[in-house]
Specification:
single chain; alpha/beta; Aminopeptidase; nine-stranded mixed beta sheet; two-stranded antiparallel ribbon; 11 helices; 40% helix; binds zinc ion
Length: 341
């Protein structure tokens, strides 16, 4: 052993470089091995990226989505900060919608999953379940945060794009899936306190509400409703390279231009931001659950009081939400068959 120590000490820069290289390639590989069975991998390989419809499907009702978005981003909600009157009103509105849609209450207190943190009081996630046609499959989680920055220096931060848009989208996707159920159960989760550090998503695991081994996938939607270049970022393929052909396949029927980016660490991406931990998909990824995050680039109204409903690009928002639904249906297909024991 002393000889080994000597070797380690003498050539330490070389060992260090080797370890760094290994780490750079680590995440994608490991997750991939943990997640895919041979059959799933074969199924993904059989997906032809350039096949499929070229028209954007019309399954979601954009008028209902806009009504939800406008209600959530209204000045009366006062920016939906966790535990405030506006935040609680938003939460109650989501409960009402989930009830009308017919989702099964899946929180710890009806639809609610309340949690306390040092940064927020009286915060709660809102969670409903769409049973799958195959009860043996692990649920797919469909997440969007409904909280926003509240009132600061007397100004209301409306948070229309961030993230009334994602919240309204998961509700409308839920309405569609009630009529056309997936094989997987879908947990529809409107999460709280994202703006305070992804606290709602973290609470899912810290309170043991979710066991990471029993979650098949996380699809997270955060900011879907506007982009001057009609771009929608698809974040997560670096960590799970098997998602690439799925994104390519969905691109075929997406009116938005999908860009796979913002998920590589700085030493590989250079100046591009890494959004791996920038929204609620982060804690899922940290638990080893594969994820996809759809969201637009930051715009001039991002985290400003001027992020209001009238700025929404309605047709673009319809397309990005349809894209998210297409992707969810594809994930359901890929993992649909029961796992080999
Ligand atoms: Zn957000």
């Amino acid at each position: 052993m002393p000889q080994l120590m000597q070797l380690l000490r003498r050539y330490w820069p070389i060992w260090l470089i080797l370890v760094l290289i290994a780490l750079a390639y680590w995440p994608g590989r490991v997750v991939m091995m943990n997640v895919l069975t041979e059959r799933e991998a074969a199924r993904i390989a059989s997906i032809t990226p350039d096949a499929g419809a070229e028209v954007v499907p019309e399954r979601l009702n954009i008028d209902r989505m806009m009504a939800d978005l406008i209600w959530l981003a209204d000045a009366e909600r006062e920016g939906r900060a966790p535990g405030t009157d506006g935040g609680i009103a938003a939460r109650e509105y989501i409960v009402e919608q989930m009830t009308t849609i017919g989702l099964e209450p899946a929180g710890t207190d009806g639809y609610l999953h309340p949690f306390e943190t040092p940064q927020t009081t009286n915060a709660a996630n809102v969670i409903g379940l769409i049973p799958g046609t195959d009860p043996n499959l692990r649920p797919i989680t469909l997440t969007a945060h409904y909280d926003h920055l509240g009132i600061r220096n007397g100004a209301i931060y409306h948070g229309a794009d961030d993230n009334a848009s994602g919240t309204a989208a998961i509700l409308e996707i839920a309405r569609f899936l009630m009529d056309y159920p997936n094989e997987h159960p879908i947990l529809v989760m409107a999460l709280d306190s994202e703006e305070w550090g992804l606290l709602g998503a973290r609470a899912l695991f810290e309170t043991n509400f979710l066991d990471p081994r029993n979650v098949a996938f996380n699809l997270n939607l955060d900011m879907l409703s506007r982009d001057t270049d009609q771009l929608l970022y698809a974040v997560g393929t670096y960590h799970n390279p098997w998602l690439r052909p799925l994104v390519q396949r969905v691109q075929r029927e997406s009116g938005a231009r999908l860009v796979m980016a913002h998920d590589r660490p700085w030493w590989r991406a250079g100046r591009t931001e890494d959004w791996t931990l920038s929204s609620d998909h982060g804690p899922f990824h940290e638990q080893g659950i594969p994820f996809m995050y759809f969201g637009v680039a930051d715009h001039p109204d991002y985290h400003r009081p001027t992020d209001t409903s009238d700025k929404v690009d309605v047709e673009f928002y319809r397309k990005t939400s349809e894209t998210a639904l297409s992707f969810l249906l594809l994930i359901d297909q890929v993992f649909a068959e029961k796992r080999n024991p």
